[in-house]
Write a structure and sequence with these properties.
Layout: E1 3-12, E2 15-24, E3 33-41, H1 44-51, E4 62-63, E5 67-75, E6 85-89, E7 104-107, E8 113-114, H2 121-143, E9 153-155, H3 161-172, E10 177-181, H4 187-193, E11 197-200, E12 216-221, H5 225-233, E13 235-243, H6 257-261, E14 265-268, H7 276-289, H8 292-297, E15 299-303, H9 307-315, E16 322-326
């Protein structure tokens, strides 16, 4: 037993405070697998937790970070042995269970997924929960019968983490991708990932009509609120929209018109408590359906000390693509 570096959130009289600190291994929470964490990433939820902009953290002190990749150090689980390369997404880490921004994490073995052979721990967190969520969304579109022949797919929040990976995956699968963004200056970046058309956010941010002109066969939305409502109203007959985010709010100022007059399907994507079998499928598909050069092009790396700045930037909507956090 000893101490290790961690980004710890403490409760204060004025709210919360996040700081890099020495954490005693003896204070790790219950679990049957201890992982030497090598990389994590920065998700919107992490940004909210570190900045204190929303009550993400449910117990204190809390080590922030909702996902990690690393090597099993010790295990009492029959499914894992020392040396196994693993990835974890969600399950309440960084919220109710001590999280990923630390050199060690003790978790339940049932929460872990074995990394596919060709995905390194760094690449796993370049993908991260954002990329794994994007894959779940693509899988939902395909389960509902969407194929490239059905027409273009809209991706909102396209320059962000979920959006960037979704654009790259859909493009590789042969879909025509329309990238919706409030940052038109990122047009060249989005086209390099495979987008064929850049749609300005204002096109989907105005008053919502029950039914608008049909534009897309489906969509992946990480924004929510008015953006999602407008996307639904513009989805073609029999289309599907996969919703996985709420950066703009939890409300949905829509109507039943898209669902009962156009047969549109709204598929909710949950990455936190997603069944382990579906997680394994998603990570296996990420091994083949996401081009590594595109992943590298959308990724930059920071250390633990860079987390406060990165957290503030992602909450402000200023992060492009993916941020990998090197833990060790």
């Amino acid at each position: 037993m000893g101490t290790f570096k961690a980004m710890v959130i403490e409760k204060t009289e004025s709210g919360t405070k996040a700081a890099l600190a020495d954490f005693d291994e003896a204070n790790l929470m219950d679990g049957d697998v201890t992982v030497a964490v090598e990389y994590s990433t920065v998700n919107y939820k992490d940004g909210l937790a570190i900045t204190g902009k929303a009550p993400v953290v449910r117990r204190f002190p809390m080590i922030a970070g909702v996902d990690f990749a690393g090597t099993v150090e010790s295990s009492n689980s029959p499914n894992w042995k020392p040396g196994d390369k693993v990835v974890l997404n969600g399950w309440g880490t960084g919220e109710t269970h001590l999280g990923a921004y630390a050199e060690k994490s003790r978790v339940k073995g049932d929460w872990l997924v074995k990394l596919p052979a060709s995905i390194s721990t760094r690449d796993a967190m370049a993908i991260g929960t954002a990329g794994y969520t994007a894959m779940l969304a693509v899988m939902a579109l395909q389960r509902n019968g969407l194929t490239p022949e059905r027409g273009p797919i809209a991706v909102t929040g396209a320059a962000g983490g979920v959006g960037s990976v979704a654009v790259a995956i859909l493009s590789k699968l042969g879909f025509t991708v329309h990238a919706v963004t409030g940052r038109p200056e990122e047009g060249d970046y989005l086209k390099s990932l495979g987008a064929t058309e850049i749609v300005e956010r204002k096109d989907l941010s105005g008053p919502v009509k029950p039914l608008a002109k049909e534009r897309w066969a489906g969509g992946i939305d990480s924004v929510g609120s008015t953006m999602l409502a407008n996307l639904l109203s513009m989805t073609k007959y029999g289309g599907t929209v996969a919703a996985c985010g709420l950066a703009a709010g939890m409300d949905l100022p829509s109507s039943v018109a898209p669902f009962i007059l156009r047969g549109v399907c709204l598929s909710g994507i949950d990455s936190v408590m997603c069944p382990i079998e579906l997680r394994r499928v998603a990570w296996k598909r990420l091994e083949t359906d996401l081009d590594r050069p595109k992943l590298a092009a959308m990724t930059r790396e920071i250390g633990l000390s860079g987390l406060p700045e990165a957290a503030a930037a992602i909450v402000a909507g200023q992060v492009r693509g993916r941020i990998v956090v090197k833990i060790r």
